[in-house]
Amino acid sequence: MKLHDIPGGAKAFLLVAKFCYGVKLELTALNVVELRCAAEYLRMNEDFGNGNLIMQCENFLNEVFGNWTDSIKALETCEGILSYAEELHIVSRCINSLAMKACSDPSLFSWPVSGPEPMRSSEGTEFWNGIHVSSRSRKVQDDWWFEDVSFLRLPLYKRLILEVGSRGMKPDIIAGSLIHYARRHLPLLGRQASNDDRTFSALVLNVSASASSEVDQRRLLEEIVELLPHQKGVTPTKFLIRLLRTSTILHASFSCRENLEKRIGSQLEQAALEDLLIPNMGYSVETLYDIDCIQRILDHFMLVDRNGNDCILTRVEDGQLMGSNSVAPLTMVANLIDGYLAEVAPDVNLKLPKFQSLAAAIPDFARPLDDGIYRAIDIYLKAHHWLTDSEREQICRLMNCQKLSLEASTHAAQNERLPLRVVVQVLFFEQLRLRTSVASWLFLSDNIENSHNISGNMAALGGTNNAAPYDNACTTENHAFGIDNNMKERVSELEKECLSMKEELDKLVKTKGGWNMILKKLGLRIKFKNSEQKPSKLLINSKPDREMSSTSLPTNEQKRTS
Predict the structure, then answer these.
(1) What value does the mean pLDDT take over residues 100-108?
(2) Which residue among 165, 268, 295, 536 has the highest number of C-beta atoms inside a 10 angstrom radius?
(3) Residues forming a β-bridge with 132
């Protein structure tokens, strides 16, 4: 007699034979599922005898489902005889039992559900039924079940995650379990990308060496991406970027990578700069890093941010004013992209259109200061010294000279890589800023003088009782003197920069028409008051794309006056 299809094979049949001959049989969580399926296959029900094997296995399974560890063991044994276990609903009962326990209060499994409250001694030690119990046992974290379920195979684990999600488990806990499971079964996920092309290529070759392993890991990664909660901010951005990097290595499907890019783009402000440095794994590797991937992520972030701002404006128009700090994430992303551009700028294979497209995707109002984009432009110009003058002016249009800090303006005024036209603009806006500061200082000085006179009159009238306003006026006056010193230092620095620039221009100009030649290169033109006399004022007008209309540069006499 041959029984090839018996569940559990010869091992299960041997246990069934022992049961039939009255040999004492020990049921455990590891053999009860196989015995239950084998008994069903052999029709060992109550029709052929009371207390038959089916009834005894069912009674023991009910005890197994009440224990977390035994339920895990029983579910693992279902994988070998999955079709039989599915027909008897053993798999679904195990998953429901595990999901119910995972969603319940974990303290219920270390303390009795009902019964007397634990007694506390005078020293603070807790007792239950006279047994010493550590107070630490009550502090169970939400991730207590992650490690146990991570040993399950993907089909059963997927069903368990879907079940706990349907029971209302928090999305962040589900995401934590998926992260734990992915780190255990995806070896590439924990490895950082290397900037060394040889090291990274060797890593890819090792993964591609085993085709079956690559296929299994690709399928596992795609399933995990589908199971991740869709709520924004639930899954860490760092983990999503690592998934994206791994999906590139494993050549995952286009929909999987697009899903990850959209998830990252929706919470790009939470990313770190080192995470965005994804190596380029395309067939035509032009650049060291995958610039196109970051471009798509940034475009999706801008789309989500634009839609969010439109919703806020709609609510405001309806009369529902919503307090929102929508500019803050955009500013964080602007700083992040500026830092990313500075990292990829030294790549000689990075084309100018890609650099411009990535930098121009950030609106101008998102950058409080343009120091970051100026640094990236300076690094790019240094690495791409063969750019023409028109290309240099084109890339410099990405920054706003008015939004450079004092340190960046000082560096830009002495930067030989920048076009002369940009240097002139930097000096002009620095001079304009200085004039504004001087005007505010003069206004402050007038207020100090008025307050000084008023405080003097009040002191003469009120005597010692009015000494406080006089002290405040003196303090304000001392603060003004400090501003005066700072202003003098800035004026001195600006005069030195203008003088050095003038000396450099004088070296270039050797003929009478030299000024016209230099200004013609800068895209400027000269207007003289009287053609018969020497020009006493030089009026510089820029082109329409650079708004510097009819603004005069100061002469030496005006410098001394100022």
Answers:
(1) 79
(2) 268
(3) 127
Higher local confidence (pLDDT), 479 or 408:
408
| Long-range interactions of 501-506: CB distance < 8 A, separation 24+ | 501/413, 501/423, 501/427
What number is the average pLDDT over the span 452-463?
Answer: 54
| Cβ atoms 221, 256 nearer than 8 A | yes
pLDDT at 308: 65
Total count of residues recorded for the chain: 562
Measured distance between the N- and C-terminal CA atoms of the chain, rounded to whole angstroms:
114
Measured over the CA atoms of residue 367, residue 372, residue 378 and residue 382, the dihedral's sign is negative
134, burial (CB in 10 Å: exposed 0-12, middle 13-18, buried 19+): exposed
Grouping H, G, I as helix, E, B as strand and the rest as coil, residue 133 is: strand
If pLDDT is split at 50, 70 and 90, which confidence band does 306 have?
Answer: confident
Sign, CA dihedral 79-84-86-91, equals: negative
DSSP code string of 413-454: HT-TTS-HHHHHHHHHHHHHHHHHHHHHHHHHHHHHHHHHHH
Please name which of 221, 212, 225 lies closest in space to residue 249, comparing C-alpha atoms: 221
- Whether residue 451 contacts residue 473, with contact meaning beta carbons closer than 8 Å, is answered with yes
Cβ–Cβ contacts within 10 Å for residue 561, how many? 8
User: At 21, is the secondary structure helix, strand, or coil?
Assistant: coil
Helix (H, G, I), strand (E, B) or coil at 279: strand
pLDDT band at 37 (very low <50, low <70, confident <90, very high): very high
Greatest CA separation found in the chain? 130
Assess whether pLDDT exceeds 60 at residue 501: yes
Position of tokens 């920069």?
497
**Joined tokens for residue 529:** 């008051």
pLDDT number for residue 313: 43
Residue 156 has pLDDT above 80, yes or no: yes
d(C-alpha 249, C-alpha 282), whole Å? 10
SS (H, E, C) 180-248: HHHHHHCHHHHCCCCCCHHHHHHHHHHHHHCHHHHHHHHHHHHHHHHHCCCCCCCCCHHHHHHHHHHHH
pLDDT score recorded for residue 538:
35
CA distance 194 to 286: 17
Number of Cβ atoms within 10 Å of the Cβ of 121: 9
Residue 377 CA to its chain's centroid (Å):
23
Is the pLDDT reported for residue 287 higher than 80?
A: yes
Q: How many CA atoms lie within 13 A of 370 on its CB side?
A: 21
Residue 258's pLDDT is 95
The CA angle 353-357-359, to the nearest 5 degrees, is: 120
Average pLDDT over every residue of 293-302: 95
pLDDT value of position 423: 87
CA–CA gap between residue 164 and residue 158 (Å, rounded): 10
Q: What is the pLDDT of residue 116?
A: 41
Which of 333 and 544 is assigned the larger pLDDT? Answer: 333
* Per-residue tokens: 462: 């009120």
